[in-house]
Amino acid sequence: MNQDVKTKAETLVCYNHPDRETMLRCNRCERPICTACAVLTETGYRCKECVRGMQKVFETAKGVDYPVAFFIAAVLSYLGSFAAVYLGFFTIFIAPVAGVAVAEAVRWAVRRRRSPALFRTALAGVIVGALPLLLLRLAGVVWGGGMAFGLFSLLWPAVYLFLVASTTYYRLSGIQLR
Ligand SMILES: [Zn+2]
Ligand SMILES: [Zn+2]
Questions:
Q1: C-alpha to C-alpha distance for 56 and 117, rounded to whole angstroms
Q2: How far is the CA of 42 from the centre of ligand 1 (A)?
Q3: What is the pTM of this model?
Q4: Which of 15, 57, 59, 99 is the most exposed place for a label (fewest CB within 10 A)?
């Protein structure tokens, strides 16, 4: 691993791209990596192969975790979407908190097991849970007339959906490399 470690002044070339000079090394396998090949993890820059290897170790989700994560995320997101209607503007502050709560509930329910697919399943659950209210409001716009007010009534459920979904997903997937 150290045969190419010489002087500091020497230019390294990316192990993937021999035509690219670089100053970076993977901090796990120490291979030189260009900026396109470097992945910033919480412990520093790593090459894609090492990151993939790390993720394998962290993929512990079992089959039953997927429906559980989906169901919990969907139910909580559904309940939260109705709060968004009453909170109006305050949805902006409450939805991220709801997202963290959904993520923590999912983590607890699956006993902290994880995998990227499990996070995406929870994300899908959140979106599905927040959709009924949004579709109900949309139906109101289409059949109820009053376009301007109708579209405004879509605003907070839509903001809620976006914020709660992104917060849940990043909260869940953020712990993956820790
Ligand atoms: Zn590496
Ligand atoms: Zn490269």
A1: 12
A2: 14
A3: 0.67
A4: 57
- Ligand nearest 31 Cα, by number? 1
How far apart CA 98 and CA 76 sit, in angstroms, is 8
34 alpha carbon – ligand 2 mean position (Å): 4
Give the ligand at the shortest distance from the Cα of 48. 1
Identity of residue 154: L
Q: CB neighbours of 50 closer than 8 A, spacing ≥ 6?
A: 26, 28, 29
Q: How far apart are CA 104 and CA 13, in angstroms?
A: 43
pLDDT (tens digit per residue) in 157-173: 899 999 999 999 999 98
DSSP string, 84-134: HHHHGGGHHHHHHHHHHHHHHHHHHHTTT---HHHHHHHHHHHHHHHHHHH
pLDDT of residue 146: 64
**CA of 16, nearest ligand number:** 2
Q: Ligand 1 centre and the CA of 30: distance in Å?
A: 6
Instruction: Quote the ligand 1 centre to 27 CA distance (angstroms).
Output: 7
Tokens 């990227």 appear where?
Answer: 116
- Determine the distance separating the centroid of ligand 2 and the alpha carbon of 20, expressed in angstroms: 7
**Angle in degrees, CA 18, 20, 24, rounded to 5:** 105
Q: What are phi and psi of 171, to 5 degrees?
A: -65, -45
